[in-house]
Amino acid sequence: MNHSTNIRPKDIRYYLKDIKKQLLLTHSRKETTSIIEMLQVSINEFIEDNPTATMEDLKTHFSDYTSLNDMELYNIDSKILEEKLNYSKTIKRIAAVILFLVILAFIIYVVLYVKSYIDVQNSIPAYEVIEIK
Amino acid sequence: MNKNEEAMITKLKRSTTEVLLLSLLSQKDMYGYQLTAEMKQQSNGLCNYNETTFYPILNRLLNQNMISMTRMITDQQRVRVYYHLEESGKEYYEDLKRACRLYMTTIDKILSSTEVNNNEPFN
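^ inputs. structure came back:
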């Protein structure tokens, strides 16, 4: 692949990263990886065919990630979208339960710590009576 | 084309991308850039898609074994990935085409009838 053009490999990486983020909203990780691979191949073809192309030309041809998402949300099977939304809800619920348990454990730890501190404080004699015979 | 027309075309484009892609692949095997170019040319610029929008659909069709993908080296020593419509894809395409035609004919009938009604003089 010849990158002696106006398009830097770094810019392509950023572009693909943006596309990947959007694809992950509507596709599984495996599907996203596969789509990104296809896109990468096509970008290479585009650069070979258009050696003087700029990053703007590339974005115009391949689309920016917002229009991709717009298109994808419409094309995606409603059942898949429902599954994704349910999955997202489940993840949020699990995260909420874990957060609750962590906070609860922290509170219990603090209570026990304070209690043990008080016990230790109480176990230390304030004064000692020494009987002199 | 005014803004309303453009918006309507965009909505129609979204729902017909898959059948149009299959239609192009039923003509001959094509690679990514060629699909975009052919789509634009055959529609006189009306179906001007960004290439990226094709890949999620192509990927789904690949997973469903409707199409296959072949790497080829051109005369200029360039690697091209060609997409080929498989037998199951051809059947699927025929189903989509029939449904599309039926729907478009119905829409056309309804739209034409409103034009006729509008032209009729009041009694």
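Chain B has a mean pLDDT of 88. The helical segments of chain B are 3-27, 32-42, 54-63, 87-119.
thumbs up if we can close this ticket
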